[in-house]
Every structure is written in C-alpha cells, then in structure tokens.
Amino acid sequence: MTSREESAETLRRAGHRVTSAKLLVMEALRHAGDHLSATSVIYQVRRDAPHVSESTVYRTLGALRDSRLISETTFGHGEVAYEWLEKRPHHHLVCSQCGVVYELSDEVVIGFAKQLSDTHGFDADLQHLAVPGICLDCSRGSEVAGK
Amino acid sequence: MTSREESAETLRRAGHRVTSAKLLVMEALRHAGDHLSATSVIYQVRRDAPHVSESTVYRTLGALRDSRLISETTFGHGEVAYEWLEKRPHHHLVCSQCGVVYELSDEVVIGFAKQLSDTHGFDADLQHLAVPGICLDCSRGSEVAGK
DNA sequence: CCCTCAGATGCAACAACTTGCAAGAGCGAG
DNA sequence: CTCGCTCTTGCAAGTTGTTGCATCTGAGGG
Questions:
Q1: Which of B21, B49, B93, B122 could form a disulfide with B102 if both were Cys (CB 3.0 to 4.6 A apart)?
Q2: What tens digit of pLDDT does each residue of A54-87 get?
Q3: What rounded mean pLDDT belongs to chain A?
Q4: DSSP-H helix ranges across B1-147
Q5: pLDDT of amino acid A147
Q6: Which among A74, A77, A102 has the least Cβ separation from residue B122?
Q7: How far is CA A53 from CA A30, A37, A46, B125, in A?
Q8: What pLDDT digit, counting tens, does each position of B54-84 carry?
Q9: Do A125 and B111 touch (CB under 8 A)?
C-alpha cells in the first residue's frame, strides 16, 4: 500500500472525505517527519498544487488536529507548529534563550498527568506539551558570562 | 502609597520608563485581578485614554511579560490571556469541553519541574502553565450520556 | 531650568490566521 | 451510472497581533 493510500485509509477511518487537499497536507507532514509551521505546510502543498488556498490548509490542519492525526504545539511566542502523530506520544523542552528544542520522553509527563488526575480528578490531555525554560548549555554559558 | 505610585515604582525597578500608557495597562491588569485578553486590556485602557494606540498596548504587554511583571498564557485555541503576577505562581487546568478554568496549586508543578531538571538538566520556566484536558464534571457527564 | 538621547509611542503596513458564503465534489442510495 | 445530501473548498473580507519608521518624551547631566 502506498503512502497516499495509507493516508486515504486513515482519513476514512477518521470520518473525513478523501480529498486531494487533505492528502497533500498529510503527505507534507508525514514526509517532513518533523515540526512544520503552518506557513511551511502551505508552501509545500502549493508547490505541488498551486490552486489549493491557504484557508483550506488552515482548515485541514485544524480538522486533522481535532481527529488526533496531527499535533499542534505553540513553541514560545511564534508560530504554531504541526507534526504527524505516528510515533509514540512525545513532548518538547524549548530553550527560551537559544531556541533549541529537545525531545522529552513520555514517562515524566505521564507521572505528572497521573498526579493531576489523583489530586484534582482532572483528565489531562498532554498529547504534545511544549515546556519553556533554559537548557543546560545556556545556563552554563550564562554562569560563565556572569562572572 | 497609591496604587499608581506602586506601579510607577515597580516600573522603575524593572528598568522601564514611567509613562501613562504603561501605568494604564498595569492598573487595568491589577484591578481586574483575573485573566484579561489583550483585547480587554485595550478596551479598558482606551476607555480612560482613547489616544493610546493598540500597538502600544501590545508592546507594553510584551515588555511587562519580559520583565516578569505579568504572565502570558494561551488557553486552548483562542486569544492570549494576561494576568498580573502579584500572587504566588499558580497554574491552570482548562477543560476542553466546557471551557472552565481551574486553579492548580504550584506544588504538583514544582515536582514536575524538578524531575525535568534531574533527568534532563533543563531549568523549566513554568511560571504560568495551562494544561488542557477534561474536567471531572465533564468526564462524568459523558459517561452518563454514553449509556 | 534646559539639553540630549535612548526608550516609548502613533501610524500604517504587514503577517498569521479565521470566517461567511456560494460553488464544487466525495460517496452512499437507488 | 446518476442523484443528491453534506462535507469541502476558494475567495474575499475580517480578526488578532507584529513591525518599520518617524516623532515624541521621560529623566539624568550640565
């Protein structure tokens, strides 16, 4: 089964119609294998199919996010990043100083979610968390610079 | 000392100039004592001083956020919410279904931050976290509805 | 009390989305 | 194969927030 057919099947299972616009957006995110900004997705899609409008891409991204096929994350104060969700759930540590993004394994986050559930009865939906902060390199660097 | 004078003093300590625009933004957030959207802040400020431009309010909010005088939080997929930071750090549980926002004590979050520090050497900056999920009421409600 | 200048502001253009509406297109029924 | 319902899409206008630039002003130095 080709990648396109898989995508089509996934769409159907999620209750969407199979349209070229949705397939293009999905393929762009799958092949990127990384975070893509909405703008990048638009660029990728329109490179193959210039007739697809921006609003369609935005709406498709929203629909795929609602169906849990892709994740939507806000890194810092910039654009929104989208990512194909085939892998295990994972999270990110974003350094506010150097901007580097580290992957964070799910375990620590699961423990956190369990605590929220135990203490507040709140069923946290932490499918894709972005935690701001200062990475090791930067905190070392500023110590040196501070002296 | 009046509230305005306190705000002025706070501004000076943070290395800002004391201007009427900044004071108005600060007063709006202090008196609200709750989250305000950027739009609400603009409305409040311009009610007292119609000449202040939107961009000034946005820039002021950004500057105050950078100086850690106010917090900036993204609830769900809507606008950005600002809040005066006089109280202890606190966090929020946002129900994706009913939209209710619960306060979350700092303790659970501190534990989470410590884990990130221990396992990844990452100094997380969780001054104002918003956790999406489903609240107790809604998860009960959907159980009943589902039967 | 006046000068100076970096920081603050207003304005308008720009960027990043969102939405209303009419036209188009999957896909299940017949 | 055709019909028709409903989901999608394109277009254009509307929000929400950001940025470049010229002007203005708070506040320390003279």
A1: B93
A2: 999 999 999 999 998 999 888 766 678 999 987 6
A3: 86
A4: 3-13, 20-32, 38-48, 54-66, 106-120, 136-146
A5: 37
A6: A102
A7: 20, 16, 8, 38
A8: 999 999 999 999 888 998 888 765 678 898 8
A9: no
Residue of chain A with shortest Cα separation from B119: A108
Q: Which amino acid is at B120?
A: H
Q: A9 with A71, same domain?
A: yes
Domain's final residue, options B43, B63, B86: B86
Q: What is the spatial distance between Cα B7 and Cα B24, in angstroms, rounded to a whole number? A: 9
Say whether both B3 and B58 belong to one domain. yes
Q: Summarize pLDDT for B88-130 with one digit per residue, the tens.
A: 677 888 887 777 888 887 888 888 999 999 988 999 887 778 8
Residues A65, A115: Cα–Cα separation, whole Å: 26
Domain that holds residue A28: 1-86
Does residue A75 lie within 7 Å of nucleic acid chain C, judged by its CB?
A: no
Say whether both B138 and B98 belong to one domain: yes
Q: Say whether B93 and A120 touch across the interface (CB within 8 A).
A: yes
Asked if residue B142 and residue B129 are part of one domain, the reply reads yes
- Is the shortest CB-to-strand distance from A51 to strand C under 7 Å? no
Cβ distance B124 to A135 less than 8 Å, yes or no, reads no
CATH of the domain at A56: 1.10.10.10
